[in-house]
Amino acid sequence: MGKVDLDAYFDAELAEHGAVLRATRAALEVPFARLVRLSAEAIRGGHKILFFGNGGSAADAQHLAAELTVRFKRDRAPIAAVALTTDGSVLTAVGNDLGFEQLFARQLRALGLRGDVAIAISTSGKSRNVVLALEAAREMGLIAAAFTGDGGGDLKGLADPLLAVPSTNVARIQEMHITLGQMLCGALEQELGLV
Predict the structure, then answer these.
(1) pLDDT tens for residues 111-166?
(2) Cα distance between residue 128 and residue 109, in whole Å
(3) Is 177 exposed, middle or buried (0-12, 13-18, 19+ CB in 10 A)?
(4) Mean pLDDT, residues 23-29
(5) 29 with 20: CB under 8 angstroms?
(6) CA dihedral defined by 87, 84, 165, 29, rounded to 10 degrees?
(7) Which of 13, 79, 156, 194 is the most buried (most CB within 10 A)?
(8) Is the pTM value of this prediction over 0.90?
(9) Which pairing describes strands 81-83 and 117-121: parallel, antiparallel, or unpaired?
(10) Contact yes or no for 105/133 (Cβ under 8 A)
């Protein structure tokens, strides 16, 4: 095994990040604006945002729910947001009793109300538990939205708005998801007149 050329690796990774960032900017401006508008309308109407995903996307769900519930840029009134990835008792009970595929759909059925916003985060758009949750969200009258990767996977036609990062590289997709998620937090603070 040879040594890694760290200078070349560093430059190549940042160059690819920059290219995906530019492609994301060009492709997702309209669905991003729609997500901000729908989320702001939901919050104004007394509703909440429910985030969910697996693995790194679960961490993003928790991160974004915390930014909205607590604060993003400055101290302000809380924005109602929940991550469906945090309650160990619920997660293990659903996994054990109903199966991992029902992990998020079951929680949405318990906590979601017509008019809430359900935001799935899935790099592939193919995670069965995420797909089933968005199906439940639509059935219940929630706004079913998603952050995903190239093409949208099984979330295409299910999520609206669908923010599908134009890349197949999982790391680049995840980088864009947290960027878009934090942009959502900042835009909501402004849209709701909280900053």
Answers:
(1) 999 999 999 999 999 999 999 999 999 999 999 999 999 999 999 999 999 999 99
(2) 16
(3) buried
(4) 98
(5) no
(6) -130
(7) 79
(8) yes
(9) unpaired
(10) yes
Q: Provide CB contacts within 8 A for 1, sequence distance 6+.
A: none
Which sign, positive or negative, has the C-alpha torsion 71, 77, 83, 87? positive
Closest Cα partner for 184 from 1, 13, 40?
40
Lookup result for tokens 């899935």:
122
Q: Residue 71 to residues 46, 67, 160: CA-CA distances in angstroms?
A: 18, 5, 26
For 77, 120, 141, the CA distances from 113, given in Å and listed in that order, are 22, 16, 7
Residue 31 contacts residue 161 (beta carbons within 8 Å): yes
Q: What is the mean pLDDT of residues 50-77?
A: 97
Closest CA to 31 of 132, 119, 91, 127: 119
Query: Could you read off the pLDDT of 156-177 as tens digits, one per residue?
Result: 999 999 999 999 999 999 999 9
pLDDT digit string, tens, across residues 87-102 = 999 999 999 999 999 9
Does residue 9 sit in helix, strand or coil? helix
Helix (H) or strand (E) holding 147: strand 143-148
DSSP 3-state assignment of 171?
helix
